[in-house]
Amino acid sequence: MTEQSPAAIAREVMRAADRATLATLMRGDQPDEGAPYASLVLVALDHDASPLLLISTLADHTRNLGADGRVSLLFDGTAGLDEPLTGPRVSVQGTARRTDDPRHRARFLARHPGASMYAGFKDFAFWRIEVTRAHLVAGFGRIHWIAGGDLLLDTRDSAALAASESAIIEHMNADHADAVQLYAARLLNRGGEGWKMTGIDPEGADLRLGGAVARLPFERAVHDAESARAELVRLVKLARQAG
Fold first, then answer.
1. Which of the residues 149, 164, 198, 202 could staple to 225 if both were Cys, CB 3.0 to 4.6 A apart?
2. Helix (H) or strand (E) holding 178
3. Domains of the chain by start residue, with CATH
4. Is the pTM for the entire model greater than 0.90?
């Protein structure tokens, strides 16, 4: 098996997370101007792995972004480990910019359906992080700085997949709910009934059950509905064999 690149490992950690720690710089009307301010945010990832946020203009972190858009996001992949420092984590650096792209909105709300209750409020807006670089710690001694261009996935040949994403998700959840359940139970060892697919990108699919999320990785990249179907069929056959 080919060894994963640091960029692929970092994207894997990021795509598995539905939340991150956001660090901004305190704005000028505060006594600690320029000091780091960390807060918890919900996050989704675009197909290329650019982080997407939905935040309120009333929040301190958003008001900080109005003065300085530079941010860092910490994605923690160490949950459940007896020794957390042996697990992976990724710090992403970049600049936050507001986005009105309907696809970004749809992808975020599919990942976080509860956010639909407030996504339409006037004080809430979607933001996309333009990544400049990332710092991966994959365990003791496995430390890498990754340029933004290397971290982000080249999606120039997968526009068709992005255009078909909503239809694929709807089809899988409506007509192949048993397959989604098999992915979670037999391939990912996740308990519970009623898992739903919330996203699909070239590298895998996102699943959710209540407050729990899971990541289903693909063996090969997919670029359109046809290649996605072939990989999902292969995985459900693998899941049935695992039973």
1. 164
2. helix 177-182
3. 6-151 (2.30.110.10), 159-242 (3.20.180.10)
4. yes
